[in-house]
Design goal:
Blueprint: H1 2-10, E1 20-26, E2 29-35, H2 41-45, H3 50-63, E3 69-75
Parallel strand pairs: 2-3
Antiparallel strand pairs: 1-2
Subunit structure: Forms a complex with KhpB.
Keywords: Cell shape, Cell wall biogenesis/degradation, Chaperone, Cytoplasm, RNA-binding
Function: A probable RNA chaperone. Forms a complex with KhpB which binds to cellular RNA and controls its expression. Plays a role in peptidoglycan (PG) homeostasis and cell length regulation.
Length: 76
């Protein structure tokens, strides 16, 4: 999943070298924390959160094969 998030986000941003995805697993839930360059934060979130919602939708679809709940946090 980490590679999937990195692949999607690096194609959106101007500073792909600053994309960092960390994974935290707690019980039946996995939280992915996405950190990008400050200038690219708006590009990842999108207007009214549409890009972030689309990334989360793809992530949920990819995780549907596993029995775990998946969350994506975009860190500032």
């Amino acid at each position: 999943m980490t590679e999937l998030i990195q692949t999607i986000v690096t194609s959106l941003v101007d500073h792909p070298e600053d994309v960092v995805v960390t994974e935290k697993e707690t019980g039946h839930a996995v939280t992915y924390q996405l950190t990008v360059h400050q200038d690219d934060l708006g590009k990842v979130i999108g207007k009214q959160g549409r890009i972030a919602k689309a990334i989360r939708t793809v992530l949920f679809a990819a995780a549907s094969h596993e029995d775990k709940r998946v969350q994506l946090e975009i860190m500032e």
